Amino acid sequence: MVKDKLTGKAGVFMGVELYSPAKSKRAELMAFLRPQGGGKEWTTRPVNVEPVTEGELPDAQQPHAA
């Protein structure tokens, strides 16, 4: 899990690709993220992506003591 620092949303990191939006003539590296349980993928600049800390994980993702 990673966090998009720009939006504050957490998601699954899918990768980084050279991407050019339809209305743009310029391509740039973009990170592709998607919600953990599925949903609409979004893009952000790679510099905006950081790992989610254990304290930021949703309850279902928290490691359980054995």
Short key terms for the protein model shown above:
elongated; 66 residues; mainly beta
What is the secondary structure topology, with strand pairs?
Layout: E1 2-4, E2 10-19, E3 28-34, E4 42-44, E5 49-51
Antiparallel strand pairs: 1-2, 1-5, 2-3, 3-4
What is the N-to-C order of secondary-structure elements (H for helix, E for strand)? EEEEE
Radius of gyration using CA atoms only = 14 Å
Report strand order across the widest sheet: 4-3-2-1-5
- The helix fraction, in percent, is under 10%
Q: Say how many strands there are.
A: 5
Give the count of helical stretches: 0
Shape: elongated
CA-CA gap between termini: 22 Å
Uncertain stretches: 62-66
Helix-strand makeup class: mainly beta
Percentage of residues in strands: 35-45%
Give the mean pLDDT.
85
* Biggest beta-sheet profile: 5 strands, antiparallel
Region (Disordered): 37-66
Characterization of the model:
- The protein has 66 residues and is an all-beta fold.
- 0% of the residues lie in helices and 39% in strands.
- The chain contains no helices and five strands.
- The chain has a five-stranded antiparallel β-sheet, with no helix packed on it.
- β1 and β2 form a beta hairpin.
- The chain is elongated, with a radius of gyration of 14 Å.
